[in-house]
Here is the input.
Amino acid sequence: MTTLASGLNSLLSAYLQAVVIGDDAEASSVIAQALAARIPPDALYLSVLVPAQYEIGVRWLQGTLTVAEEHRATLITERQMNVLRAASRRRAPIGHRAVVTAVDGERHVLGARILSDFLYLDGWEVHFLGGSLPVDELRDFVARNRPSLVALSVTLIKHLEPLREAIAALRALPDRPRILVGGAALAKDHEAADRLGADALAQDVQAGISVAREMVGLSNPGALTSRVLADIAAHVQAERKARDWSQRELAEAAGIDRAHVSALENGRANPTIDTLVRVAHALGITIGHLISGGPSSQHWSSPRRRIQQMGQGSTEG
Here is the structure.
């Protein structure tokens, strides 16, 4: 039996192989087949595109990929980001505007682009301004458009000073926005927000969405999210009891804390994709079943057939 977790790993491997050699058509085919199999677009975005691009960055830093090859892979992934964003369902507008950009001199913008896409899907009005935006241009744009939130991304440590300057300029505005920072240069610096004068730091896109909502007073999930969490709670509990497992046994099988299982079954947890994959893997079911119900297991054969079958659980009787 193979679950969504191993299926996503297979997709990641196939996609990464395609972008490393610059095979745009094959990369597109991997994503298209997964969508046709009803794999959730956000799962593909976060579990295939994001880790693939991270690996591309690692190989570039290690010197096993040239700058040209890194740029080629990034452009392929940006095209697939457009595909997955278009395939995703956007939440109703939440009445808040966000500006997302990389700081002056910073040309690595994929992290900022990812956050801007997920803010948009979360119901924000988003202005994505790309990379290397001069401080005065950012300040003037924010003053004219008056967003609730400005998210600033920095990948290289040498660009921390422009980040500091951008934050200072935004804080000096009469109607200043909340300021969220993130990026590889701050990945291990948990005190960066306080030291730089920002309001908060996000270590990844899911944390970024959660923190952004809290910063503008929207910490409680909307009605749709509440219904989804209630469905997940019911399905996790039903599958666990069908196996005569305790919460502790499920937690051990999934590699998570028992208290997290309890919170999940009571609808109090807002799980990450990783947590859902772990729980689904432990129960031997698809992540789609956890969210929407349906058949509780899948069997796959070859890798190509696996891609075709990964999302069929919601349609088979």
